[in-house]
């Protein structure tokens, strides 16, 4: 069984708008799935949802801004991982 929470519970528990969730899903920032005509989000997606909700509601970042910030942070993480791999290879090659 997959740990999941329905969109309706998310709206209630996180005090966010259902339209905001739909927008995040439409632009690919979060993934939902449907079971028996109810949309759910997996618990693994919750940290991303919380981050996007904080940026949107607390910092007033709009949806295009969320996409840009997310893309830049992903690129930074990829570069950091590549740097770690190169450093590990350099140490291995000695």
From TrEMBL:
Q: Name one Pfam family in it.
A: MerR_2
Gene3D superfamilies referenced in this protein's UniProt entry, alphabetically: 1.10.1660.10
Q: Write the protein's name.
A: MerR HTH family regulatory protein
Which organism is this entry from? Halpernia humi
